[in-house]
Amino acid sequence: MTERLYLDDAYATWADAMVTAHTPEGGIIVDRSVFYPTGGGQPGDSGRLEWSDTEGRACRMEIATAIKSDAFAIALIPAEPAALPPVGTPVRQIIDADRRLGHMRVHTALHLLSVVLPLPVTGGAVGPDKGRLDFDMTEPPSDKTALEGDLNALIWRDLPVHASWISDSDLRARPELVKTMSVAPPMGEGQVRLIRIGEVEADTVDLQPCGGTHVASTGEIGAVRIGKIEKKGRQNRRVYIHLTS
């Protein structure tokens, strides 16, 4: 099992770890990961590994992404084929901090987009400077400028973003928390992570299950722009947002 350090501190950009296994495809499984693995529409982190070989020589490997090797392990995927650090090797993980922060800002902004467009979500994707949500929406928004203004108004309230946990059974008893139609919440470990935007109960703007990385307050997102709104099927509309700085 890989300890998921990014859940406790999304701002951490490096961590020491131990290589515990290799995958048949050439991935490196570590005992604790600062790399976020691809999932929930958010790409895996990129970065590098550093370690010393048995003769004390410095080694370095670029990491293209991270993936879930199984339900409990995270594998780091080298950017190019190369000799892997042996099992048992202490390594230092260093992620691309700017790319991670972009994902955090965009991911949090998408949560707010689902607030100003309170419709079932059928899909989504996060990038370092833009993202999109797909909605079960027969007609496009009548006023895109007003929608953008509502979204930025929430951002500039500088609302705190909190993580907490709920049991699988409690989440099943509260289906209204799940906004996504096509992606199931990250269940199966007995508890599910919730992301709350806003102060405690009295001033909650959004509350939904999510295993991704987010900024600590909405003001860190900065201003956003609503981009294209595309028709994707009879009832689906894809709405893009872009960071403007």
Structure description:
The chain contains 4 helices and 15 strands. The protein is α+β, with helices and mostly antiparallel strands and 245 residues long. The strands form 4 sheets. The protein has a 6-stranded antiparallel β-barrel with strand order 2-3-7-6-5-8. Strand 14 and strand 15 form a beta hairpin. The longest helix is centred in the middle third of the chain and has 20 residues, at 97-116. The mean pLDDT is 92.
Q: Main beta sheet: strand number and arrangement? A: 6 strands, antiparallel, barrel
Helix percent band: 10-25%
Order of helical and strand elements: EHEEEEEEEHEEHEHEEEE
Shape: elongated
Oligomer: single chain
Q: Tell me the β content.
A: 35-45%
Measure the end-to-end span. Answer: 38 Å
- Average pLDDT level: 92
Could you tell me the number of beta strands?
15
Structural class assignment: alpha+beta
Low-confidence stretches: none
With helices defined by DSSP (H or I, 4 residues minimum), what is the helix count? Answer: 4
Supply Rg. 19 Å
Q: Biggest sheet, strands in spatial order?
A: 2-3-7-6-5-8
In short:
It is built from four helices and 15 strands.
Name some characteristics of this structure:
245 residues; alpha+beta; 4 helices; 15 strands; 17% helix
Please give the structural blueprint.
Blueprint: E1 3-4, H1 5-8, E2 14-22, E3 28-30, E4 32-33, E5 47-52, E6 58-68, E7 74-78, E8 90-95, H2 97-116, E9 121-126, E10 130-136, H3 144-156, E11 161-167, H4 168-172, E12 191-198, E13 204-209, E14 224-231, E15 236-243
Parallel strand pairs: 1-4
Antiparallel strand pairs: 2-3, 2-8, 3-7, 5-6, 5-8, 6-7, 9-10, 10-15, 11-12, 12-13, 14-15
Helix pairs in contact: 2-3
